[in-house]
Amino acid sequence: MTWFTAIRTRGVPLVALACLAVLLIVGVFVSIAHDRAMKAELAREAGAQADLLASAVSGALAFDDADAAQDYVDAVQVNPNVLAAAIYDEENRLVASYVRAGETIPSVAAPRPETTRFGDGRLYVVRPVTQGGQTLGTARLRLMDTPASQRFSRYAGMLLVLALAALLIAVLTLTQSALRRANRSLSARAAELAEANTRLQQEMVEREKAEEALRQSQKMEAIGRLTGGVAHDFNNLLMVVSSAVDLMQRSDDPGRRSALMDGMRQAVDRGSGLTRQLLAFSRQTPLRTAVIDVGEQIEAMRILLERSLREDIAVEIDVRRPLRPVEVDVGELELAILNLAVNARDAMPDGGRLSISVRPAGETVCIEVRDTGVGIPPDLIGRVFEPFFTTKEVGKGTGLGLSQVYGFARSSGGSVAVESPAGGGAMFSLCLPASEKALPVAAETPATAETADGVGHVLLVEDDDAVAAGVAQMLADLGYTYERVSTGDAALELVRGGGRFDLVLSDMVMPGALNGLGLATELRSLQPGVPVILTTGFSEAAATANKAGFRLLSKPYGLDELAAVLAGALTARDHAKVREPRTATDDLQA
């Protein structure tokens, strides 16, 4: 009995110590595995960001536009893990850069192939910048190996396990002493400890889920800010092309129109489509909704879908009525359907059938897009809506198409789901909430009238020379006189110096201490009767302008839209003057 008692009183602490050692070893191995997994994920995300940066600056390097390249590099700093970013030309000379405090980059770098590597506590990513098969330079990122918060959370979990193990030993020792003194049941204590261990494991699982949710939320926020900045630059480019197209349409030179119109209009459509994809996922652009019949809308897309797919793919559209109307952004709906169709096309390299059916489903209207392609592997089906996730080769897919579909569905109050049976093929179900509103009555289309000539002196505030040139030509073509400055500070100085204008047309995002909104606010105090129209391609800026109560003209805009907005602002100003009572001061000034 004495021997058994000795084993019982001394053996349990020894077993606990052995368990502590095992937990320590397991914790080390788990930490190593977790560290490798996090590095792999960090490398993947950094590679995707470098690929996006390399793709974005290709045009800037092709035209030796260092300012545009610097804008793209500056957009990267929203990621707090980036220590340095640089763009080098084909001779490895520095074109644009961004560095945090304590970091340096060489003006001439050693040639580097495409790589993603860790070293010296840093992650180095190099991606070639190519266009049309020609290498124009390289895009390089330097990131922190692992953020401090993640390192703390990783090692804190292991330390917590060790602390709990030590606490377990202390509890076991005290339990054994209590058992010797009070002769309590060992089985009851063992059951209590087992229950405590179960609760501990459940809490650890819940904590890991919460940490993963937090990381995903932070990632979405960073992507949203990055896409908003990229969209601003793209919309400036689209503004140049769009203004040129409208001017060419008013030209009588057939050679000028035929040589440039088709190519420039195609560039506008492609650029604005990419912008909508980015902003739909980040959900930073306001939706312009309309009540529509989804069946009629998709039937009207038949020709577009057939032209977007190959000749060896048959398109079938089946609309099951009656259908309730839905209230959505028509452009985003068409873009979502086109993204699903293109995704199906890529899944059918040898041809097949694309079937689109529209049917009522309770309080929703569902659009089902089926294909007869290769299908989606079960281990990837849960990731198809992730941004920048793609199984296509480099250069053949951005990974943003299905993300746009997901963002459109969520922004519209609906949902999207995907199924891929074992026999092949895939089906995407896009369900949109039915609307209680009635379909609008089609009005007779009035005859097209020429744009009315404008009368007035306009102050044009635009920092981008190419955009300013296009808008200036449109103003002149409409009959307005204008004066252009490139910053808000210069515009304010001009007005304070006695400059008189009938209307101010200003960009919102500009360099200098005074942006477009700040300029509009100052002018409202200095010259309350002068209308101010703000223009931007940046969604966050647009929302700010709307909240402040200023007129907004979103880029890209055409000649007719510009004419209508200017005429409306001047008409509202004239009506306001008629309603205002005259004063003695007004008579003296007159």
Walk me through this protein's architecture:
The structure is a single chain. The chain has 590 residues and is an alpha/beta fold. The protein has helices at 2-56, 58-62, 66-75, 148-182, 186-249, 254-282, 294-300, 302-308, 330-346, 401-411, 465-478, 488-496, 516-526, 539-548, 559-579, 584-589; strands at residues 82-89, 94-99, 115-119, 122-131, 134-144, 289-292, 313-319, 326-329, 352-361, 364-371, 415-419, 426-433, 457-461, 481-485, 503-507, 532-536, 551-554. Strands 2-1-5-4-3 form a 5-stranded antiparallel sheet. Strands 7-9-10-12-11 form a 5-stranded mixed sheet, covered by helices on one side. It has a 5-stranded parallel sheet with strand order 14-13-15-16-17, sandwiched between helices. The longest helix has 64 residues, at 186-249. The protein is globular, with a radius of gyration of 32 Å. The chain starts with a helix and ends with a helix. Residues 1-7, 280-286, 443-451 and 583-590 have low confidence and may be disordered.
List the helices and strands and how they pair.
Elements: H1 2-56, H2 58-62, H3 66-75, E1 82-89, E2 94-99, E3 115-119, E4 122-131, E5 134-144, H4 148-182, H5 186-249, H6 254-282, E6 289-292, H7 294-300, H8 302-308, E7 313-319, E8 326-329, H9 330-346, E9 352-361, E10 364-371, H10 401-411, E11 415-419, E12 426-433, E13 457-461, H11 465-478, E14 481-485, H12 488-496, E15 503-507, H13 516-526, E16 532-536, H14 539-548, E17 551-554, H15 559-579, H16 584-589
Parallel strand pairs: 7-9, 13-14, 13-15, 15-16, 16-17
Antiparallel strand pairs: 1-2, 1-5, 3-4, 4-5, 6-8, 9-10, 10-12, 11-12
